[in-house]
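Could you please consider the sequence and fold appended to this message?
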Amino acid sequence: MNIKLIYSLMKADINVIEKELQRAVDSSSPVLKKASIHLLKAGGKRIRPVMLLLGAKFGDYDIHRVKYAAASLELIHMASLVHDDVIDDAVIRRGQHTVKAEWDNRIAMYSGDYIFAAALECITHIDSVEAQQILSHTMTELVVGEIIQIQDKYRYDQHLRDYLRRIKRKTAILIAASCQLGAISSGAPASIHRKLYEFGYNVGMAFQITDDILDFTASEKELGKPAGGDLLQGNITLPVLYAMEDEKLRKQITAVHPHSNREEIDAIISKLKNSEAVSRSHKLSQRYLNRAFEVLNSLPPGKHRNSLREIAEFIGERKY
């Protein structure tokens, strides 16, 4: 089974989540409603909701209960993107204008806040204190991760552990919570949902490392935004950390600042792609995926377990 088939088989349930997302961001304020719907229409792979649905298959699956957990996690992800685009002054995401570009920074920030609040309201439909605590903790860690990312901009002396802690909070914890909350919302035992959290964490780490590789190796058309954007914005990612071990590349990279021109960035991208930075980054991503597979193999077998493996493999192999 490939990932397209997985999505096809789950299409009806994904549509239920899409409707719940639309309901959740409905607002009496025309501006908030338009901004939120604008973000919803940008779409995305919806990997987190799909992984949540598959996690829910380990328990008593009911889409009309599980949909609230799925919508909550996707709303948190959406809100963080809106705030990210303000911080990064991003005009394009997924090939279309960002909320801040379509309106302005203030509308974008309040839209992000509104979507965060909608996520909290949505999770109240899940009658589980543990689920609500996990969602709240996930939001807290996500915000801390974003603040750390701001503080670390253009800080070229950071270490691998700084990067790994940052992507744990920025990405991995949200995917981990998706897998875990799916199982909790379907009443799966703690022994199952804790392993799903561990699986999701390792997949999430691999997901972000792959994203950071693609920022240098994929085209602008594939990315839906200019290549090398992270470096230009001062975000020191894994390929950059590895590339800076070469003194010549380090000099070029550490000279990057907010007003660096496109030619400078393109020259660094070209040299970085020809270095070992990309292959070394892939190796670390694969180590996280291998850990995820080990955890997955300890869970009860079934189609849903196989589907989780397919998605994890897709994350490790994707080209954009």
Q: What stands out?
A: The two ends are 20 Å apart (CA to CA). The beta strands are 92-93, 96-97. The chain has one domain: 3-317.
